[in-house]
Amino acid sequence: VGVNSAKRPDHVLQFFGSTAKPVVLVVESKELAASVERGIGPRLTQYIETLLKTAASIERVDPTRPWQHSTEKLSLADFRLASAVAYIAERSSNQSAMRSHASADLLFCLEFSTSGAACHVRLVAATALGDELAKRIAAIDASVLGITLAC
Question: Torsion over CA of 98, 104, 105 and 106, rounded to 10 degrees?
Answer without folding.
Answer: -50
